[in-house]
Amino acid sequence: MSREHFHFITGRLAAAALENTIRDINKNDSFDYTIQVLPITVAALMTPSWIAPRLEVPPNATCLVLPGYCDGDLKSIAEVCNLPIKVGPKDLRALPEFFGQKRVNEGYGRFDIRIIAEINHAPRLSLKQVLRMADALANDGADLIDVGCEPNSTWAEVGEYIRQLKNAGHRVSVDSLNPIEIKQAVDAGAELVLSVNQTNREFAVDWGCEVVVIPGDIRQIESMDETIDFLSARDVPLRIDPILEPIGFGFAESLHRYHEARRRWPEAEMMMGIGNLTELTDVDSCGINVLLLAICQELGVRSILTTQVINWSRTAVRECDLARRLVHYAITEQLPPKHLCDELVLLRDTKLLEYSDEELGELAAQIRDHNYRIFAQQGRVHLMGAGHHFSDEDPFEVFDALLDSNPKNVDPSHAFYLGFEMCKAMTAAQLGKQYNQDQALNWGYLTNEEKDRHRLKRRKNRD
Questions:
Q1: Which of 17, 130, 322, 382 lies 20 to 30 A from 122 at CA?
Q2: d(CA 166, CA 191)
Q3: Cβ–Cβ under 8 Å, residues 185 and 158
Q4: Is pLDDT above 50 for 462?
Q5: Which of 118, 449, 82, 454 is nearest to 308 (CA)?
Q6: Nearest CA among 269, 271, 267, 266 for reference residue 292
Q7: What sign has the CA pseudo-torsion 454, 455, 456, 460?
Q8: ∠ CA(87), CA(37), CA(89), 5° rounding?
Q9: Contact of 372 with 391, CB cutoff 8 Å
Q10: Angstrom distance (rounded) from CA 117 to CA 252
Q11: What is the average per-residue pLDDT within 32-61?
């Protein structure tokens, strides 16, 4: 059987990065390859008809690999190249996966922590609002929808709301200490009660569902002993929640209580309510959720209660869904949770492909056409075209310099496009993200892909 030989097509800009990427992919020398650098700066500008007459394929090549943006009819290439043709990924960083090298091993994505997502102050909301919120939370990964009641009151409609949630296909819990309210909820189908302590435990015997035990005295883990013994003696299924406290109110000590609870009750199911940290800390919730889910995974806390009320934790359920998969794989496989999945790397990117000032200068000198190339490097925005190379930390300065050069091709549409792209480039430069012209910035699982080549399709001139 002949050895596989891939012939890659690229432009000048991506040539070095492509070479390095292929070398990493082929560390085991499992295939041969050649790279043909065509006389064009940006590979995304290539079309099949432009590539075809410029092809120089080695006789021993077994497959032709085109750049990811080379879309359209490949007939013109097939007529001059009697080889299988593949179009690679649009992002060079995805090339390892294109070659079957998965970033994570088989089994990634499993989890054993269940997410209970609370709808806060449900009595203040209409049934339609609650149903809509429940659908969204379930779509983001919630396993149970928790109906949060109001303290010091009895909600007459709790049963109807839970009945309708059950009819919509949701598993439901109820968050209340009020025995009357709880009875209506469990009769309507609630399968879990948050919460039970010495004030309402005798009623739990008749509810016929699982309950969450909390301390009578939040600072004393021993205050759960009598309630746990009382319920266990009566075969009431339960989970234990020692209560996570906010920073400044005993946060570290509350973490210790979870560890102590696991020591005292090694076989018990446990839950952690994480909203006291994510909702009450001036920081994006994503990193906090990963750390808390890691603590839960190590201690065998198999359910968490979260909410997403404040804006910085508005996607907490989705974050927890991704985090539980990450920490499960890391802990079961005894691997650091690094380079496993980048969906939770939101603000910055996992890796930057950067060019030196000398490389950028050489690139600018090679450009002969009047299309503009935009780069974000070392905190600056660069704009290049034939005979021009402008750069500054402020894209307004870059654009002013461009206008001072009396360009002939900057109509209102093109000016809007350049402004849009330079805004993205400035954001990338400020945050340390990878910027690739005509591609969306990578915001992890929050990324919204842009329409393919939304500006390039309007360009007629090519190198």
A1: 322
A2: 10
A3: yes
A4: no
A5: 118
A6: 271
A7: positive
A8: 25
A9: no
A10: 24
A11: 88
38 CB-near residues (< 8 Å, 6+ apart):
9, 10, 11, 46, 51, 54
Which amino acid belongs to residue 115? I
User: Are 372 and 418 spatial neighbours (Cβ–Cβ below 8 Å)?
Assistant: yes
Strand 85-87's sheet: what is its strand order?
32-37, 5-10, 63-66, 85-87
Tokens representing 461? 């001139």
Contact 399, 419 (CB under 8 A): yes
Is the sign of the CA dihedral 224, 228, 230, 231 positive or negative?
Answer: positive
Q: For residue range 147-205, what is the model confidence (pLDDT) as tens digits?
A: 999 998 999 999 999 999 999 999 999 999 999 999 999 999 999 999 999 999 999 99
User: Residue 298: its pLDDT value, please?
Assistant: 97
Task: State whether residue 256 is helix, strand or coil.
Answer: helix
C-alpha distance from residue 448 to each of 13, 80, 141, 238, 344 (Å): 25, 37, 19, 42, 14
List of E strands, 334-430: 373-377, 380-385, 388-392
Q: Supply the angle between the helices 251-264 and 285-299 in degrees, to the nearest 10.
A: 20
Is 330:296 a contact under the CB 8 Å cutoff?
Answer: no
Half-sphere exposure at residue 56, Cβ-oriented, CA atoms within 13 angstroms: 8
The residue among 314 and 357 whose pLDDT is bigger is 314
Residue 295 CA to residue 257 CA, distance in Å, equals 12
Closest of 170, 162, 160 to residue 115, by C-alpha = 170
Encoded tokens for 91: 């992002």
Are 304 and 272 within 8 A, CB to CB?
A: yes
Give the Cα separation of 332 and 298 in Å (integer): 10
Contact predicate 245/226, CB 8 Å: no
Q: Residues 6 or more apart from 149 whose CB is under 8 A from it?
A: 122, 123, 155, 158, 174, 175, 176, 178, 181
Alpha carbons 30 and 46: distance in angstroms, whole number: 29
CB atoms within 10 A of CB 218: 15
Spell out the SS3 assignment of 315-354.
CHHHHHHHHHHHHHHHHHCCCCCCCCCCCCCCCCCCCCCC
